[in-house]
Every structure is written in C-alpha cells, then in structure tokens.
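pls ignore typos typing on phone
zinc ion + seq
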Amino acid sequence: MEDLYSLLGVSRNASQEEIKRAYRRLAREYHPDLNRGDREAEARFKDIARAYEVLSDPQRRRRYDLYGDADISPAAERGFADFTSPFGDIFDLFFGRGRRDREWAPRRGSDLTWRLTLTLEEAFFGTERVIEVPRHRECGSCSGSGLEAGYDLDLCPACGGEGRITSTKRTAFGTFTSTSTCRRCGGRGGINTHPCPACGGEGTLFEAERIELKVPAGVDDGDRLRVPGKGEAGSGGGAPGDLYVVMEIEPHPYFERRGEDLYGRIMVSVAEAVLGTELEVELLDGKEKLKVPPGTQPGHVFVIRNKGMPMLRGGRRGDLYLELMVEIPEKPSHEEKRIFKELARLQSRNGNDRKCLVPREADGA
Ligand SMILES: [Zn+2]
Ligand SMILES: [Zn+2]
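k done
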C-alpha cells in the first residue's frame, strides 16, 4: 500500500495546515469532473481523499504513524455528508450547492420553530393569524425530483449506478473491506444533467409561505402549536418536517397571568374603604360587579371564581384574584384637609396607649 504521506506529497512531519493545502490542490487536479473518463485520475482522486481522511484527523494520523493502520472503514461508512464536512467548499465547487449534505435515502425534512406574539386578550379568546414563514418546500414543477420534465438521471460513472463504492485496503493488521456512499452521485446512482429550471435541480424552493393559524383560547406563554408538514421539505422523497409555533404572551397593563389564574389590583379611596362601596371591574371579557364591604383592609384579596383564563382542554376557567389598594390623597384640597383634621381629632389617642406596631398574628389570614 502506498504511503499516505507520499500520496499527498507531504513529509511525515507536515502540519495539519500543509496537509489540508496539499489535499485541496490535488483534489482539484484529479477530480473526476475535470478528468472525465480518466480511470487513473479517478483512482488517484480516491486515494488522495482516503489519505486526507486519515491524516486530517490527528488521532487517526497518530495511529497511522505508530502502526501503519489506516483505519478507513468507520468514517467511510458514516457516508458522504460526514466525510465532506471539514472541506465543504471543495464539494460546493464540484458538486453544486446543497448536494454535499444529501444522501439518497428518503429523509424527513427538519422541523421549524416560529415565535408568535399574542396579547393576553388574544390568548383569552383565541385568535386566527396569518404568518409568512420562509421555508424550503417541494418544487411543484418537478415534484421534488430536481429533473427537467422528460429527462431522467444519467448513470453515475463513478459507481455505475450502485450508489456505493467498495474498497479494499491492506494494512499491518490485515485486509479491510469498506463500503461507502458514492461521493460522485451522493448515493443516488445517477447524475442530474438536466436540472429542473424552476428549482435548479434542488427539488425544493425557498419561499415565504402564508400559513393560517387557529390559536385556541387559553394558550399560555411557551405553548407550542404544531402545524404538520409545514417544516422544511424532505429529501429523496422524504416527508416534510413540522412547523412549531411557540406562543409568547405580551405583558398586560392590568392583569398578570399565573397558570390559569389572573391577578390584578383595584384601588378605592379612604372613604370607600371605610364605608364600603360597589365597583365595576373591567375584565378581559366584560364587566364584573364587586362589592367592597365597609372596613375592608388594604391588601385584602378578593377571589372571584371562574373568572380567570379559559383552560385549553375542558370548559373550565381559572380564578381571578383582585388585591385591594387604598388611595391616600397626596395633595388633599382645603376641604379634604379640614375633614381629615376633624377625623384625626376624633381618632386621636393620648400618647400613652398609642401603639403603632402590629402584632404578627393580626396580619395574614
Ligand atoms: Zn455514484
Ligand atoms: Zn424543480
């Protein structure tokens, strides 16, 4: 077996960068696309690629230096995509954009994620939205084949239509046979010489697609809505992925949502807190009458059952919690001052029994 270093024309102590440069130069020189029908160049190209595969990986290079074990098979069996990844630009150049990541087995397209911002009201009532999602979809002109109408693939000259290439290597440890995906055709067994004019042979088109969404009532921040088949297009006849719409609920000026429950605050005057009052509170879905009994303390929480957010499944609703705040006039009028002074006189306690600290058990409940 020819020495891997001499295959690339570098010395045994060449740096990784030198190895990479040598490989790129030779790969361009011997590439089958530039040497059509030249069997020698083709064999040479394969040898160069194998030498680079081992020497570009520091661990495998070290093992090769120590034992002469080229260890071709594991990485080769990982296939075309893995093999090309460290030097994708060369394969971009030779095989065209997008081809290098494709193996010719049906592969499902990847899922897409889309963030959808909703107001609390929209989350409450549910809504319909139209979004425009840029995605790869199957080309309608060629139904994803990438071929111009009336044409078929040409037989791949590298693998003879097999889609796989079997190679045998003799090493210090014995003979290794490895089968790898054909790099020329990506395992497809054929070459597309008449690409579809609509998609340029890709089989997919990248476009923004209008997608109508029905957002159900009760969705919460982070909830995901699945739209089947609206992810990226599959390859090799594989199904498209799904689109996941992730809900983001905007903060509301008056209500905070915790699970299915809503929390808000209401404000009354000192007099209303003392004498009691009836309020009309504007909720997300209409008005709600609320009785504030005389003597209600600041911080008191009114719980209104079944007035929170609707639940996604089942017709029940969460609860509404309203905390009472008492407005203290910052700039009382003359008349108010007079009345408060009167009140102060009425409520005055002589210095001795004045107690401003509140016993802890009096709080809470
Ligand atoms: Zn092939
Ligand atoms: Zn097409």
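The longest helix spans residues 39-55. The pocket of zinc ion (ligand 1) is lined by residues 156, 158-159, 163, 182, 184-185, 189 (CB under 6 Å). more later
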